[in-house]
Amino acid sequence: MRPDIPVYVYALLNCLFFLVGKNGVRVFHEYTEHPNAVGKIHGLVGNVLFIFYGKAIRQISGLFVITPSLKKYYINEFGIDEQKVETLNMVVDPHRFDNLDGVLIQNWITYCGIISEAKDGISYLLKAYSIVRKEYPQFKLVIIGPFENEKTEDDVKCLINENALSEDVVLMGRVPSSRMPELLSQSKILALARPKQKQEAFGFATKIGEYLMTNRPVVMTDVGNVSDYLVDKEDVILARPNDECDLAEKLMWVIEHYDEATIIGNKGKQTALRFFNSEIEVDKIYKRIFSQNYER
Predict the structure, then answer these.
(1) Does the pLDDT value for residue 296 go beyond 50?
(2) How many angstroms separate the CA atoms of 112 and 210, rounded?
(3) How far is C-alpha 186 from the chain's CA centre?
(4) Is it true that 7-91+277-293 and 94-275 share their CATH fold?
(5) In which order are the strands placed within the sheet that holds 7-10?
(6) Measured between alpha carbons, how far is 186 from 204 in angstroms, rounded to an integer?
(7) What is the pLDDT of residues 80-135, one digit of tens each?
(8) CATH architecture of 94-275
(9) pTM of the full predicted structure?
């Protein structure tokens, strides 16, 4: 490593200690989750690695985090100079959704991502959908993405069978990223049921950016810093976390007030372009690394 070439490290918590403080090299670090998820909860080895990470993080030249809450955590937990920490919003490429105005909208309530319980609350979404289906049987729940592990897959399929939803829930599996804009844009409603927990309190669901770019109504739980950027009934429709009944009510509200919900969806796209614009966020990185020498 050379002092005239800055090093940018995304994640890789356990490697950071070996990179900082070497020959005047400036090291910049980006992290988008609560670091305890990789450190303290994993026993003795995790605790030791977390101590080394804490020493390393205090020597870096700059830190980029995904939410204001995570910024406060790093400042308070590690004593990092506030001037070194920058909130870097998640970004979305708006051009991925060009030329999709003619897609045929289906009666789909759609979720995409790595299908998980702890992080994305897939059971809450399934239970909420089972309530919605009783009133609106024409709607299907489309789940796009791989399962996080075999246990989650077994639990989801068991829940589908218990609620007699095998004809109504489409497990699409992993699809090419090139198909995602069209599949999301075909959906009448996009949904996310993230539960309230430590990881979510400090992170931000990056799939929300792509949801919003579709112009479709987005129903999601109000967790973490979501309400710092998105306003209920203006940009998205927010539901209480860990509450399938409230989530079901919000989904049915969208179905029953779809014209109004579509206006909300359109506004959500404009908000996404303002807050999650890749050019604006990447500017923060360049300005931090190259300081006064950077000109856009």
Answers:
(1) no
(2) 10
(3) 21
(4) yes
(5) 7-10, 27-31, 62-65, 85-87
(6) 24
(7) 989 899 998 888 887 888 888 778 899 999 999 999 998 899 999 999 999 999 99
(8) 3-Layer(aba) Sandwich (3.40)
(9) 0.85
